[in-house]
Amino acid sequence: MSLPNPAELISQMAIRLTEHLHHRGISEPRYIGIRTGGVWVAQALLDEMGSDSPLGTLDVSFYRDDFSQNGLHPQVRPSALPFEIEGQHLVLIDDVLMSGRTIRAALNELFDYGRPASVTLVCLLDLDAGELPIRPNVVGATLALAANQRVKLSGPELKLEFQDIAP
Hints:
With about 170 residues, the protein is of the alpha/beta class. Helices cover about 30% and strands about 25% of the residues.
């Protein structure tokens, strides 16, 4: 199996996201990327859509339900949200959706800042390995991987590669 071209996915996602927001009557969404891959994807999407909207960044490390097991990642940085959350229509963007736990953590953190009017979830890839009932509204591609495989996004130029993990 080969991985899809991220630039092509971003182009398709920009069209689908624009249609989704139009269909929902959302004219001024607030964009938030989940650090780090989601921030790269969010910036690429904003560039593709020709948008100069401010981009918020979210680091969900403290909100993960596996924080006590895994400890603090050495590159934790504070979240930066240059706009209000309360009553806003948010577009939450991540690179790879796997278990859904990162998205759950992101939602928990966002609700600590206020109650948004809505949250649209956008993911470059969905690995269809959900442990929680979380699905993106807009997705670039859905992949089914072997149990020992993962996909890693490097950036900011958006390059996808397979990674093998120990069983």
